Amino acid sequence: WYLLPCLLSTVETSLDASVESQDMLQSRAVLTVATTAIITLGIGTAAYGVIEIIRTNSSAGATHLPSLVPLEAVQSSEIIEKPKVGSFIGSLSIKRLHLVIPIVEGSDTSKVENSVGHYIGSVLPGVSNNSVLAGHRDSSFKNLGKLRVGDLLTVKTKWGRFVYEVERFRIVMADNATVIVPTRDAELTLSTCFPFDYIGEAPMRFVVQTKLISDNAIS
Known about the structure:
Layout (H helix, E strand, L loop, with lengths): L3 H56 L28 E7 L4 E7 L10 E3 L11 E5 L17 E6 L2 E14 L13 E8 L9 E14 L2
C-alpha cells in the first residue's frame, strides 16, 4: 500500500503531461493555420496587384491613350481638337542638327518624306503625356544619331512653343510597342529606322526620349 501514493502521483503527472502536450499541439495547429492564412492573403493581394498592373499596361496601348488635354487647359477643362490626318500642326527645330522641319498629323510614310509625322495615337506636343514623332532615316531624321544627352529641341504649334531636353537614347526592335506607351510627364519621343545605313526595310528603331523643360502654351 505504501506504493499506491507514488503510483497515483505518477499517473497524475502523466495525465498532466498529456494534457499539456495536447494543448501545445492545438496551439501549434492554430498558429500554423493563422500563418498559412496570412501568407495566402499576402500572395493573393500581391497577385491581384500584378494582374492589375498588367491589365492597366495592356489597356494603355494605342487604342486607350489619354485625351488631348493642353497643359494650361487642365484647369479650364478645355479639350484640344484633334488635327486632321495629313494636316500641318507645327514645326520641329533641333539646333545641333541645324534642322527646322514641318510636323504633319499622322505617321504614314508617304506623307512624311520632307517632314516628320505625329503618331495619331499619342498626345500633341506640350501635353502631359508621351508625344511621338517619326521621320525617315535618309531624309528628315538622317542625322538623328548625332544628338547628345542635354541637347534641346523646340516644337512650335498653334497651341504654343515647347522646349524639350534629350534624356536618353534607345535601340529597339521595329515592333516594340514601348516607344508609344503613355508617360506621366510631358515627353517627346523621336523615332526613325535603324541601322541608318541598312539596305531595305530596317529591323530596328532608333529612339530619342526627351522631357519638357519649358512651355509657353497659348491659352
